[in-house]
Every structure is written in structure tokens, then in C-alpha cells.
Amino acid sequence: MPQDHDRAFAAIGGWRVGRALTCSVGPDKLLVFPFPIRYPFHMVGTTPSLTPALRIQPAAAAATDRAGANAPTVPEKGPHAMPPSPANRISRRRFLQRAAATIVAPMIVPASTLGLNGATAPSNRIAFGCIGVGNRARHVMPSFLAQPDIVFTAVSDCREDRLKSAKELMDAHYGNKDCRTYPDFRDLLAQKDIDAVFIATGDRWHTTASIHAARAGKDIYSEKPISLYIGEGRALVETCRRYGTIYQGGTQRRSTASYRFALEMVRQGRIGRLHTVEMQVWTGPTIPHDKPAPVPAGWDYDTWLGPVQWRPFVPGRVSGGNWNYFWDTGEGPIIGMGCHYTDQMQWTLERDHTGPTEFDGKCEWPDPVKFMSETPVAAEVRCRYADGITGVMYSRGTFKERYIRYIGDEGWIQVDDETNAVTAEPKSILGLRATAGVSWDNAGDHVRNLLDSIRSRRPTICHPEAAHRAQTICQAMNIGLRLGRKLRWDPVAERFDCDEANRMMWREARAPWRV
Amino acid sequence: MKIHTFGILWMLPLMATAQSALAQPDLAKIAADVARYESGGDMEPLRAIDDLVRATRDMPDLRKPLESALASVLKGDSTFEGKRFACQNLGIIGSEESLPALAGLLARDETVGIACLALGSYPSAKANSALRDALATRKGTARAQIINTLGDRRDASSVELLAGLSHDADPAVAEAAVAALAKIGDAPARAAIASLRRENAPALASAFTEASLRIADQIAATGDRAAAATAYEEFCQPSQPTHLRRAAFAALLRTDADGGEKRILAAIHGQDATLKPIAIAGVASLKSGGTSEKFAAEIVNLDPVMQVLMIGAMAARGDDGARRAITSEVQNANQSVAMAAIRALGALGDATSVPALAKVATRREESELTGAALASLQQLKGTAASEAILAAAKEAPPEARVRLMGVLLARQTTQAVPFLIEQASHEDAKVAAAAFRGLGKLSEPKQLPALVEMLANLRRPEIEKDACGAVVQVARRIADPARRSDEILVAYRKTDAATARCAMLGALAETAGPQALDAALAATEDRDQKIRDAATRALANWSDPSATPRILAKADSAPDTTSRILLLRGCIRLLGLPGDRPKNEMLADYATALRLATRPEEKRMVIAALAATPLPGSLGIVAPLLDDAALQADAAHAIVRIVKANPAADREQAKAILPKAAAIAKDPAQQREASELLKKLK
């Protein structure tokens, strides 16, 4: 048996061999996952380091394997990345457990005292369900399971293979057969013994699932982007407020030391007067044309689409993360990744309840002769706040070149997203970084913040309004690009100066879904 | 690829593009192509439409034909995907002109959704009529879709119709109708919902809950506090589900004229475990004066769990009253409460918080609380806080002082330098070592002479490493690398004390420079064995790659094997460091190093270093080693790496020796790689 949950979930980041995934979970054990893991094709070909567990072979041989046929195609980092090796994972987990014990444990409040329906009182753990158990859920799940006061009791997915394997992993973690499975997430939400949900579906589902969860009385951790269009995000904010939902947007950089450090330096005026925030996501990608095909056995494609108006099943459009690059299911890297940086910008500027007032930019569209993807290949979009501070979002370079840079009239500070490295000018700023934080791909502290808020009923660090405002910036950028025009935005009324742009703030969900 | 800019600059060229696109009689053809579109097919016509939508903005004369073309796609035998695409764009640019075509889509179940995609944000009120008309003929999901759209459009004219549909036999339709009524939310809609609720249909219970809460929000937004409170209070009753009670209570706090202060106090004094945390959370946003003081007085009456929550709420208030209240809880006997207060002060505290935090941080026994207090001291903002911490450090006993000196170091408190200089001679070695660590981080180059003098006069081996480290750190802040060892050299030459000279040789290795190298080389001839050993160690640890040839020469003439090996290993390390030395010189150094290496261990190190940083000519050095039984495996591996890194260099030699390297390599993968490289070279 795997020794713990981390190993079981980290296993998903193991080796892809043929159609199955295998991973060492101990000195003499191998887990085999009976389904292939797919990644957005732009990720394929990246070459992560070998896991320490597999470094038993001679260095020369290992070097050969990196380039060889068995080399993993799993990205080490990034929104679709897999967790580190089991060995690293254990280490990180232990670190987190220690941190939790040191910092948080004294603040844990008995669930029954706080009125968590009484259902979790015996173990004082918050009962979670997971909606959507694909790659992203598996990447983030260890951060949840590392928390001592969580128990996952149910999972939901519209794909049989994922549902089955998620149950296996949960059961392996808890050493029982108790994990319940629900093809329809509404059945999971109907379970009274579940306090909260982790929503890690495809982007098209994030808001609708969150709203259903809020109505069912569940607190929420939702992956970003928290919405695909502005009206949807506003509906989410209102629903969470209406139901008193504790909601954490999955922009976990708010809980990451490097970004907090940069924020602190900017707020302290270490780079002088801030005038520009540069943000960079990657180029493209472009997805070649593909034809409709039969829906694979075990897929509930109707549920997969959810609130998106029907369109045929096209493998090249729905598989892996390719859905990211179509307007109705993903909206591209500016939305999917850029929201991390606009979220940082908003937070640093202390503008979680407002936003910029102008947007303009330019972009490069995919060649329709070769590609069917819809979102820009490259872009440069600016937003300006009323006080003149400008945010510039670049979609350019490689995946690994993501960053955010704050530029002031006396210097700058930058966080490289891939490496979490902080650079600055003047360099003396870096000497002030007194504490080291966990890696950016570790949502542990972000999860901890949610759990503390669930107990205290106080807002999370990325509450719905903050998450919605950060997302709105990206959505306004995309609307501007799609309309090919400069836009003015009233952040109070949440309206553009352009009727067409206002019309693009809303998309009618496919019935029976509504927000 | 097509590039577009939005903003003023792009306008003219794109207008020209639009004019020219529309001037050509191909709009009908584009529409016809869109009408045939299916996934996998040609997307050029779709992208052409996208371009035209962008290009024809503010050009009504050009928009009309474009809209007509899109509307034409909705008719006849167009593919579903073609119609879907047309609907997406009509949702952006469509006018009343296209409503008949969209209404046509509402007449078929399979196209109702895409019609509503267009109509959801359609500006014309006539869209509502089209939707209402379609309701009569649609059933099931299609009907729910239309109802949802009417609700999203806030169509007040649909209230009566929707009220009727809330009795639909299909629960999905009935729920959609209730939800739509709540979204419309005008007086007739509210009245309809109130009436429908009285019918008490269990299947619609959650829809009515949502509707009632939404309407209560709408009433609150109008400023009618009393009516809103009545609506919320219904859901606050103990019979309601926990989440609704919480939500309604929070809404009541928002509705109350006093921000909920009285209601919060009542809940805090009460026994309702569900509402008490919500009440405490509400303290964070109360606006009235003296709130923090008022609720600070309540802390003592709460149980520890609620005290922790109250501290969190007070921290969010962030005012002076809250800070004082939290500071007074730092010494709370309950560890959870004390921890909450300590952590809260990290973000909220100021100089006034230092004494309380320092008291915990300097407790004799280290614990989670002392660690948290130190972390919070580190986080406090402002120079006044730094000065307060410095004052606390001066008063603290030695062991605790070390902790606070660590805080000063982390905070980069340069005002602490005089204090640290004084503490560097403290009799307690831990204090002195901590002082040197702080001086290394905080001192400026102008303070280097004083630091060097302290090192020169140091007679305490236990802190020599920290003192030396401080000197090196400060010296490295001198901009000109050639001047970094100047002060150390002056002191080195002045002193006769062997201990001091040994320490300073270590510092010279780190700061380097030509004169420093001369001094270290000369020291290898010193009469004192200790100094000779220290000089050898310094040269083995030298930090400047340009010193390699002279250190190699010293290794060649070393009087004993140990010194020779130490110096040789130091040179191999230096050869791997980044630098701008000419490649031919480096190659010569590698050759010398290999010649001086007498043991296989050092030879392997040279081979590995060559493989890691291949130079033109490297193969010439490594190739002969293929014949050495002890080294041939390493040599074969290195040759493959060298050729792989730069196949163009030494091409002919590579072709000659790769087969031999492949034959020697035992690892099949390496053999395969060697063969592949050979193929490429050929």
C-alpha cells in the first residue's frame, strides 16, 4: 500500500508508459493507473528533471533517458503541471504538516462550536467533496490532504475513468473504501455531511458549479479562472454573499511568499512611485483542425459541456487542456493564467473592490488555414487605472517565461513564475526578504487560509469580489481584443463605454444550467 | 497570421481593409461558406467575419450587410455549427433586423440554445416578444432555456406568463420560472413569488429559497431596511438550515442602521453557536467610534475559541484600539489565544507592540510561542519598531539577545551596527558570533577597516569563522574587485600573530586579487607550519579563476603529496567556474592538471570537468585515456558528452574516436547515443 495520500496522488505525476501511467510508490512497489494523462500539446516536449527516486541509474544513463523514448512528457510546473516526485512530495508534506502544527493548530476551533452542521465534530475535520478530478485536481489535492483538519469523502466527475481512479486514490489514502462517487455533482452537493467542495473542473464549469455549491450551503475552493465572462463573475459574487459562502479563488500566489514579498516592497515604496505592472503569459498555442468524432465510452459529454451551448465532440478541441483555447470553454492564457497576475496587481494596489478604467492593445490571431483554436497567439494589452498606473499583459515567449514585474520611478521588482525567483533593482531590496516561502505551485497556505476562514466565517484572502475583479481585467482585455477597440470601463457600474462590449459581458448558459 | 490593434492607431488601415473587403462582392460567399462550416473544415470565412465585426465598428452602413449575411446563415440548410457561429456574432452586433431569423431558431428545440446565446444580451425589447412567443410551442429543456433567457433579460412583461409556468408539470421548467421571476424582481414579480410560496410546493422549495433571498437583497438595495430585515429574519430562525441562518444573520448585520452592532453584542452574549462566529466576524466591519475598545472589553467574557476569533476580527479592524486589545492578549495563559494575538501583531503591530512581543520572544525556554513572537517582530513595520527591537536587544540576557539580533539582521536594521560592533567582543561566544553575522550583513565598506582590525586582533577560534565571513561579505560590497582585499592585506602585513594571519588568509582566498595571490603564495614558504597550511588551504579555496596557472605551478612544486592534491583539486574546481579566460589557456591548464594528477581520483575529476565544460581541443586530452583501463569508462562517457555539446569542434577527431568510445561504453543507451552522434557527424 502506498504509505500516504501524497504518494498516491503524486503518482499521477509519474511516468507515462504506453497507455498506462506507472509510478514508484515505494522501494518495491509500482502503482499503475489504467488511463493516459493528456496534456495540452504545447506542454508536450518539455523535459522535467528525473525524479530522485529514479536516479538510482547511472547519471549518464539517466541523461540519455531524458531525451529517450521513455522521457516523461509531464511539465514540472505550470497550471497543468504534476506534483513533484514522491520523495519530494513527502518532504514537502512533512514540512507543511509541521508548519500547520506550528502556526495554525492552536487556532483550530472545534467544528461543532462553529456550527459546521455537527457532522464533522467527531474528528473535528472539515468534510470536503471534490468536483472534477482531472489533472488539476490531482495536482492541487496534496495541498488539501496535507492539512490535518480535512477529510475528503466524495468525488464527482463526468468521466468514468477519472471518477474510478480518484476513488482508488482517495481510498488508498484513507485506507478504506469509503470515498463516494457521483457522476452528477448535484448529487454530491446534496450530501449533508459535506461541508465544502474543491472545484477543479474545466473552466466552463467553475462558476456554475460554485453557484450550485453555494446554494447547497457548501463552502468553496474554486480553481481559477473563477468565471469566463464578467456577468458570470458578478453572479458568483452575489450568490456567495447571498448564501454567506466562504469562497477561496484559486489564485494561490496570494499565499506565496515571493509574491507577498514583492507586494510588501511595492507598498513600502522601495521602488518609488509605482507606475507600471508588467505581466507575461505564454505564446499561443495554436490547435490544428480536427473533425467531430464519437464520444468515447465513459464520457458524459453533455455534462462535460455543461453551461456551454452545444457543439459537437471534437477530440482536438476537448482533449487535454486544448479547450483552454476556445472562447466558450477557456478563453486562452490571458484569462487562464493572466488572472494570477492581475490578481497580484489588484492586491498590491489594494484595489480588490474596483479596477482599471481603460483597456487597449493588439494581438495576433491563429492562422485559420491551419488552426481551429480561437484565442490569440500573441498579445500585448494595456489597462490603466484612474490614477495612471498601467498594467501591461504580454502573451509572448515560452511557458516558462511567465512573470510579473512592478516598475516604479526608483526601481523594480519581479517574480519569475516558473522559478519563483525574485529579482529587483536596486538589489538591496532583496536583502529584505527575511523569510523563505513554499513554492508557488503549492497551494497549501492558500488552502489553510480557506480552512481558517471556514472556521472563523471571515472572508478568505481571495474572496469572491477580489477574484471577480481580477478576472474582470482579463475578460475586459479579451473583449477589447475581440472587438478590436479601445475600451473605457466604469468599475463602479461595471459597464463599458461600448454597447457591443457590454453585450459580451453576458452569455446565456445552456439550460437547464443558469447562474 | 493576422495582427490587430485596438485603439486609435489601427483604425485607418482596418477601415481600408473593411471597405475593400466589403467592396468586393464576396460577403455572400463568405456567408455561404460559414453556412457550410463544420469542425475540421475551412475556418477562413469564420475569421473573415470576426475581422469584419472588428473593422466595421462605428460604420453602420457596413454593419448592415454584415448582419444580413449572418442572419442569412440562420436560414435554410446551414450546418448547426455555422448557425452557432452566426448566433455568437449576432449576439454582439445583431439588431432588430435579425430577430425574425433568430425567432426561426426558437421554433426548433435543437437551436433554441444558440438562439438564446444571441438573444441573452440583445438590446431590442422586441427580443422579449420573440422569446415569449416561442414559449407556447416549446417544452422541457427548450422551454426552460427560453425562460432563463427572459429572466436574464429582466423582462417585466413576462411576469404573468412566468407565474403560470411555475406550475408547469416539468419541475425544471417550474424552477426556471421561479428563478426568472426573482431575477425580474419588480413589484408584480415579488407579489407573484409571495403568492406562489403560499402554495407550498415541496419540489420548488430550494427555488423559492433562492428567490426569497434574492428578493430580500433587492429590497435591501432599495434602502427599505425594515422590509429587508423581515425577509432575512425568516431565514435566521433555528428551524432553518445552518448555512441559511448564517447568511441571513450576516445580511441582517448589513441591513441594520448601526451596522449590526447591537445584534452582534446580543449574539456574543447569547448561546447560539451557529450565529456567534458570524457575529464576531461582523466586528471587523463595524464603523462606529470606540468599537474596538467596546469589543475588547468583551474578550475576557468569551471562551478561548471565541477569543481567538475575536482577535482575528479585531486584527482586521487594524486601528489603535484593536492593536492595544490584541497586545494585551499576547500574555494570555491560553496558548491558542496568545498565539493568535502574537501572529496578529506581526501584521498589525508597531513599535508599541515590541515590548510585549519581545517578552515572549526572549523567554528562557524556546517554544512555538517564542518562534511566533520572533517572526512577528521580524514583520513589524517601520524604523520605530526597529529601534524598539534594538533597545530590547540591549536589555536582553545573552541567549535572548542572540535571538533579537537575528531579528535585527532580518530587518536589515543598519542602526544596529554600533551595537553589533560592541557585541562582537562579548565574552559569550554565541553573542559575539551573532554580532559578526549581523555585521557581515549590515556593515558598509567604510566599516571594513574596523572589521578587519577586529579579525586581526581576534584570539577566539570559536568565532573566527563568523568574523572572517563578516569581513568577506563586507569586502565583496566594494565595487572594484581588485580593491576588495586591500584592507585585509594591510592588516595581514601588519600583524605577526600566526592565528590572525591564518584567519586573514582565509579571507584573502574569498576576496582574491593579484596582490592577495602573491601574499598567499608567499605564505606557503613561511617558516610557520600553521601559516603554510593555512596558505595551502586558502589557495585550494581561491575564488578567482585567473589564478589557476600560478596555483597549478605551486601544486607542481608542492613539498608534499597532501598539499599537491589539495592545490590540484582547487585548480580543477577553478577551471569549472565561469569566467572570461581564453579557451586555449584553459585547455593548457587542463592538460597540466592531468599531468600533475597522479591518482585516478584526480584524473577522473579532470575528465569530468572537461566533459562538463567542453572546449575545442578537449578531445585531444581525453582521447588517449581510452587506453587506460582505469579511466577508459570515464573517458568514453566524457567523449560522448563533449561531442554532443559541440559536434562541429574537432569533427574529424570525433569521428575517429567515437567508435572506440562506443565500444568501451557499457551502458546501451550511451552506446546508442555515440552511434547516433557518429551518424550525424558523417
Indicate the structural class of chain B.
mainly alpha
List the uncertain runs of chain A: 1-122
The average pLDDT of chain A is 79
The backbone outline of chain A, from C-alpha atoms, is globular
CATH class of the largest domain in chain A: Alpha Beta
**Uncertain ranges of chain B:** 1-16
- Anisotropy-based shape of chain B: flat
How much of the residues of chain B is beta strand, in percent? under 5%
Q: What fraction, in percent, of the residue positions of chain B are helical?
A: over 70%
Biggest pleated-sheet summary of chain A: 9 strands, mixed
The biggest sheet of chain B, with number of strands, parallel, antiparallel or mixed sense and barrel status, is: none
End-to-end separation of chain B: 38 Å
Provide structural commentary.
- The complex is a heterodimer of chains A (515) and B (682).
- By secondary structure, chain A is α/β, with parallel strands linked by helices.
- Chain A has 16 helices and 18 strands.
- A nine-stranded mixed sheet of chain A has the order 16-15-14-10-13-12-11-17-18. A six-stranded parallel sheet of chain A has the order 6-5-4-7-8-9, sandwiched between helices.
- The longest helix of chain A has 20 residues, at 464-483.
- The two termini of chain A are 43 Å apart.
- Chain B has a domain at 620-682.
- Residues 1-16 of chain B have low confidence and may be disordered.
- Chain B starts with a strand and ends with a helix.
- Classes of the chains: A alpha/beta (515), B mainly alpha (682).
- At the A-B interface, helix 2, helix 8, strand 11, helix 15 and helix 16 of A face strand 1, helix 3, helix 5, helix 7 and helix 9 of B.
- Strand 11 (358-365) of chain A pairs antiparallel with strand 1 of chain B, so a sheet runs across the interface.
